[in-house]
Amino acid sequence: VHKGDVLAELESPDITDALKREQSSYAELLAELERQKIIARKQKLAARRDADQTEIERVSAQRAYERIEHAGVVGVVAKNEFQKAQDALRSAEIRSKHAAAAALLENDDVDLQLKTRTSQLERQKLALDFARRRVDDLTVRAPMDGFIGSLAVANRSVVPANAPLLTLVDLSRLEIELEIPETYVADLGLGMRVEIAAGDIKAVGELSAISPEVVKNQVLARVRFSGQQPTGLRQSQRVSARLLIDEKPNVLLLPRGPFLDTQGGHHVYVVEDGVAVRRPVKLGATSVAAVEVVSGLKPGDKVVIAGTDTFENAERVTIND
After folding, report:
1. Backbone dihedral region of 118: left (phi > 0), alpha (psi from -120 to 50 degrees) or beta?
2. Does 1.10.287 match the CATH number of domain 8-139?
3. pTM surpassing 0.70?
4. Which of 26, 219, 229, 303 has its CA 20 to 30 A from that of 42?
5. What's the pLDDT tens digit per position in 38-76?
6. Residues 6+ away with beta carbon under 8 Å from 9
7. CATH homologous superfamily for the domain 174-243
């Protein structure tokens, strides 16, 4: 399969019904917002109309007052008529001022209502997007190119939440899991070189992860191939690996044997003219098959590596052919 290909399609009436409910709520809020916009325009127009009307009345009262004021100076109109004109002008000015302020407040109130409706619509949009993602998740797509390794469920079966459906294997990005004895944990480090063998396949990798947990005296580690991954490997294939904890060139080595346990790694028996002579030694690093000799031996010495448990720590033991 290729990345994006459909691997499985799930059915969930609850999830699809939830999407329909969110779609209906979103459509309802969208219609309500549009209706609120129309009402807002009407309210703004009405407030503006009232403000304009009171302004016209103020201008009319101003003109009437100016005419009476001129006539009152020359004594043509009575004093009470002049005062009425003053009161009418003052009243018109107050109404005009309040109408203009009310129009501004009405605009702010309408804008706030629209903002509230818009926020409700945006919140519903988030809920709708979440419901759509849940429905989209019912269609399982391949996250990468690979091969279907195994199926965990049968077709048309009921699947609980978070249950595995199938295994998708990317053979171009295989990694190796190693079980390493916990006695070597202190010597392990990320990036350590690993030699890998599987039949005729030989490869080199590096330690990429080490589990912090010890299970049955074993530590799980993960190895990533260095450079090009060799062809021919399969998922869950058993391979052998060797960790190169340390490399020491030109050292004196002894094969590993029971003598390490019986002599505690501090003494060995060296054969000299048919006699096994107990000699103190200092050993260094150990591997699966050999142990380093730091001091006490020289190249060509013949060492008894098995059967020394019967020597009972004697200094000299005669060996019969």
Report:
1. alpha
2. yes
3. no
4. 26
5. 888 888 888 788 888 888 887 887 877 777 776 655 555
6. 138, 139, 140
7. Efflux pump adaptor protein, beta barrel domain (2.40.30.170)
